[in-house]
Amino acid sequence: MNAKETKLRYLVNFIAVAALFAAAVALGLTGGDTMKLRITPSIWQCGYLIVMAASLNLVLGFLGQLSLGHCGFMAVGAYAAALISLAFQRAGVYDQKSGPAFILVLLVSFLAAGVLAAVLGLLVGIPALRLKGDYLAIITLGFGMIIVNIINNLPFCGQQGLGQGSASSALYATGLGFSNDEKMRYLWLVALVVILCVAAMFLFVRSKYGRAIRAIRDNEIAASASGINVNYYKVLTFTISAFFAGITGALYACCNGALTTTSFAFTNGSILNSVFIVVMVVVGGMGSLTGSVIAAVVMFLLNYTIKNGAWVAALPVIVQNVFAYPMLVYSIALIIVILFRPKGIMGSREFALCDIPRWPARIRAHFAGAGAARAAKKEVSYHG
Amino acid sequence: MITFIQFLITGLRLGSVYALIALGYTMVYGIIKLINFAHGDFIMVGGYTLFFTIPLLMGMGLPGWLAVIPAIVICACVGVLVELLAYRPVRRTGNSLTCLITAIAMSFVLENLAQAIPAIGPDPRVPYTLFADTISVGGVSISHATIITIAVSAVIMVALYLFTQKARIGCAMRCVSEDKSASTLMGINVNHTILITFAIGAGLAAVAALMYVSQYPRVYTTMGATLGIYAFVAAVLGGIGSLPGAMLGGLLIGIVQSGANTYISSSMSDTFVYLILIVVLMLRPAGILGKNVGEKV
């Protein structure tokens, strides 16, 4: 690929992203009940799921280390952002959720959420990343649980947390939590945050740091023999991933009227938990940021349509009964995906607009390759 | 002093249940290097089997605890089915991470399938309480359930240890966990051995379900999730893949949890459990009794 083509690809992608952002801004200015009650909240939810999945992909897909406590960092970010915005509100910096003062508060609370989560990521990462594989998985699970448990026991967060109905909720209602109207008004915010975060992560994995961490994933011993400081890069990636998880937490805090720690648990009935984020990354493709974006959107839509879609009512009663338990559907879908396409939707490829003209050739090559692989397998089974 | 003994006994009892579950985790992990997240849900399967069979057996005039036999059979069948339908095909095509994801998915499948069955439903059920009598020793009251739990777990652990050390199948298990291809060459049927491991592990989960249910008489579809995590932590703590390690880890977790409940705060007990795990893994990355295997280049 020559330099000119690379420039063209960047230009095309930049224009596409700018168009997306403009579309989000334009959508935010339109009216209508469907828009306000359904589409906008969905875009917000998709937004935080996308950043969350992409940030975990840094650790899981590019660094090749399984972390099962990623939602812990998100919880830290969410509570930090909510509490900071509350503090500003109480100090009288703003009282309406508009105007330059509020934008500044938003900026501060988003950054603070990210930085706090990153500091915690650093503190967790330094000891935890000495371990590998399943041990790392279980120790990150432990850290995630501890974070959530401590937040539960902090007097100013509490088990009910910044929930609706408690004294602190009245305060929270005037903090970051957006109503549907405000979600419409600040639709540009979620678009901007998602685009900035994903772009930053993309630049990170394309940089020399990204090459180093992919080398570690592929062969840790070889990487360290080539002069890569394995521990440094591991902790760095973990910290950056935690930073973005913190930002996601701030988005989540904006999106929800109440915060409780069950949303950040290891497993729960909903789509947001540490396990499900792992699932999104695997379904999207480990090592593909665009894959994570696609998987987050697909999972969200699956979740949303199963719960709210009109087409569910048209199905036979037996299927409807199964669909009353969405988790059952996801998990069976997940097993099927894993059985038939273990590397996920995108594998380790990135989606690029400029590649679309090449797709037909690629699909042909894929089927030809699959045929050859089948033949080879048959050959092996004769001998094995 | 009485509080102390009471806490110790509660801890031992809780720990014995954890140890029984942890044995299942550690055996499966030892043999296929997979965290079987669905293992916790085998307890749930066992719990519901007990819920349905105890009244049946009592109606026939038999003692209620005999219900553990159908529970073991059904759990073992579920364990074997999970291995045959999900894990084995994925192991053939995927890597360790896809296996792990399949295990997580299987756990969700079992939990939600149970909810979707009309006879079970999402609401908690209260099974018949077994071994409810208590005896009092020097001011400390101990329920029969406690004594039976600790005794039965101890017997099972010793029996299992002897089984893996002496019996032919037990030896085969150890061989497969050491080196799959070499054991194939020695004439061991690897797939059968893995199936037997799953069956034994799931059967132990059924026994654990009986012990747990006689302690906390409530069965619900997600009961296995948290129990499973504690037991898994116990298995890692003791050194995963090692049977004595699982017992030690289980007892330790039980005692820490009961100690935190008694002396500090019940809402903080999770934190202490995980703190112990983190400290042990920092000091001994392979667990208390685990062997630290160097990496081959």
UniProtKB/TrEMBL annotation, chain A:
What InterPro entries has UniProt attached to this entry? Answer: ABC_transp_permease (IPR001851), LivM-like (IPR043428)
- Which UniProt key words apply to this protein? Cell membrane, Membrane, Transmembrane, Transmembrane helix
Which superkingdom is the protein from?
Bacteria
User: In the record, what lineage is assigned to the organism producing the protein?
Assistant: Bacteria, Bacillati, Bacillota, Clostridia, Eubacteriales
**Which residue ranges traverse the bilayer?**
12-30, 42-64, 71-89, 101-123, 135-152, 186-205, 275-302, 322-340
> What membrane topology does this protein have?
Multi-pass membrane protein
Task: Indicate the principal place this protein occupies in or around the cell.
Answer: membrane
**Species in which this protein is naturally found:** Oscillibacter valericigenes
Its name, as the record gives it, is: Branched-chain amino acid ABC transporter permease
Q: Where in the cell is it found?
A: Cell membrane
The UniProt entry, under Pfam families, shows:
BPD_transp_2 (PF02653)
From TrEMBL, chain B:
Coiled coil region boundaries: none
Q: Where in the cell is it found?
A: Cell membrane
Q: Which residues cross the membrane?
A: 17-35, 42-62, 68-87, 99-121, 141-164, 193-213, 272-290
Show the InterPro entries listed in the entry: ABC_BtuC-like (IPR037294), ABC_transp_permease (IPR001851), BCAA_transport_permease (IPR052157)
Q: What does the UniProt keyword field contain? A: Amino-acid transport, Cell inner membrane, Cell membrane, Membrane, Transmembrane, Transmembrane helix, Transport
| Keyword Transmembrane assigned | yes
Bilayer topology reads:
Multi-pass membrane protein
Pfam families, per database record: BPD_transp_2
Q: Tell me yes or no: is Transmembrane among this UniProt entry's keywords.
A: yes
Q: Which family does it belong to?
A: Belongs to the binding-protein-dependent transport system permease family. LivHM subfamily.
Protein name per its UniProtKB record: Branched-chain amino acid ABC transporter permease
Q: What taxonomic classification does the UniProt entry list for its organism?
A: Bacteria, Bacillati, Bacillota, Clostridia, Eubacteriales
